[in-house]
Amino acid sequence: MTHKLIEDKTKVAQQLTWAHWVVIYIVLVCIGTLSSAYAYGLVFYLFNGGVILAALLSLSGKAAGQRRYFLALVFFIDATLKVTLAEQSVLTAGFTSVSLLLQGVLGAWLIKRYEPSAINPNTLKKITAFFLWGALLPVCFSATAGAIYESVTSPAGNILAMFASTWLWWFINRLASLVLVAPLLLLIAHTTPEKIRRYYNQSTAEFWWSLVLACAITAVIFSEKSYPGQMLATYSYLIIPVMLLIAIRQPLIKALVIMLAVVSTSYWLDAHTAETRPDALHSLLALSVFLLITCLVVWLLGSLNWERQAALRKEKRQHQLYQILSRVNQLLARNEKAPAQLFEQLSRTILLDGGYQKVCIKPIAASDLSVSESVCAAQLNNNGESGSEAEFSIRKNGKCVAALQLWSSEPQHFDNETSIFLDELTSDIGFALEVYDKERKLEQIGAVFRHSRESIII
């Protein structure tokens, strides 16, 4: 290993604590409760499950005490709302709240156990793992527990029919809560502040117009009276072409933000147009299924777009690295200059072709190079903000004689592939220094023989 990462100035994504997540939970639950609870009832989980799973995954790298504080406060808030506002019994409120928390705990554990990378679900592989381990299996568990509880505690009747209908109710609502909310929160939580600001600054007008247009079309579609689940799923799909266009045009996070706005608008209008609570509950199932499918489509399409952009960035970086390697080797092949002049040319070449903010070649004090100070080249717009810095050893005859120091404005720039290229680059520089020393020694020997009358040629 001839290189080391000196510093990666990437600012960790938001650094949310358990208190931040509790505030997010309270705000989103209040929005869902105020907008739709009067029609659907407080048993409707618009945001609860998704916030819990996102919080547990985000807090997974922190002390276990933070997760305990979060779970305890969420249980208290959730159970209190059910007992006071929904007028549920303490046993029922406690059971539903515990099953909801266990669903989040199980999902977080399965993701960390089988696919830890799914904590940032922005590729097809991560989305598949997140949906399976974080959503589908935990929701099956919580829906089964809820269906068994309601079947046992309900008045005598057809227990099998009661179990099937209750299971379907819990499954659709809790799965929709996870898929509609958790991916967006996790993507935001794992995005650096600089990248969020860049998202905000890029295509701002287009984003706001897309948001307004999507909500307006949703308002037109769902302003019609929602019959008991019979016609809703048919005309609901009119919003899909709009969301597909948005998913293609907007980055993944922005597309999911617009999707969340569409979800909130849809539920709010559906709750307002329903005449009775039974009608609203029937309509809710069809609406949740539609929104679940639409969100999955937007999520998958946005991830494919993200992977395409990532592939293009990788291709551009590889082109820059090959260009640096080619230009430097051309420079070394025709080099006849002293190390100080060579280092100056190398610094400028690497700086311009690699797009770095600053490049320095620093000689080692104990080396035999005829260079005493670092040779640097820097961009005029170098503002020293977040990025990454790395150092690569330049070896001559097996000994480290200098170090190539690079500053990049891109966080986490020096990955394994980039480091391999730069290691090869410093190896070529070291070989050129060896050749230069050998040529100078041969010139000195030749000069001795030319100026010595007593020289003997063997």
Any key phrases for this structure?
single chain; 14 helices; five-stranded antiparallel beta sheet; 458 residues; alpha+beta; elongated
Mean pLDDT: 81
Portion of residues in beta strands equals 5-15%
Overall body shape? elongated
Count helical runs: 14
> First CA to last CA: what distance?
44 Å
The main β sheet shows up as: 5 strands, antiparallel
The value of Rg in angstroms is: 31 Å
What share of residues is helical? 55-70%
Low-pLDDT stretches are: 6-13
Sequence of strands across the biggest β-sheet: 1-4-5-2-3
Question: What is the SS-derived class?
Answer: alpha+beta
**What is the number of strand segments?**
5
The helix/strand order is: EHHHHHHHHHHHHHEEEEH
Q: Describe it for me?
A:
- By secondary structure, the chain is α+β, with helices and mostly antiparallel strands.
- It has helices at 18-40, 48-58, 64-84, 90-114, 124-153, 159-189, 193-201, 204-222, 232-236, 240-249, 252-273, 277-333, 339-354, 416-451; strands at 3-8, 358-363, 375-378, 388-396, 399-408.
- It has a five-stranded antiparallel sheet with strand order 1-4-5-2-3.
- Helix 4 (90-114) runs antiparallel to helix 5 (124-153).
- The radius of gyration is 31 Å and the shape is elongated.
- It starts with a strand and ends in a 7-residue tail after the last helix.
Map the helices and strands:
Elements: E1 3-8, H1 18-40, H2 48-58, H3 64-84, H4 90-114, H5 124-153, H6 159-189, H7 193-201, H8 204-222, H9 232-236, H10 240-249, H11 252-273, H12 277-333, H13 339-354, E2 358-363, E3 375-378, E4 388-396, E5 399-408, H14 416-451
Helix pairs in contact: 1-2, 1-3, 1-11, 2-4, 2-6, 3-4, 4-5, 5-6, 6-11, 6-12, 8-11, 10-11, 10-12, 11-12, 12-13, 12-14
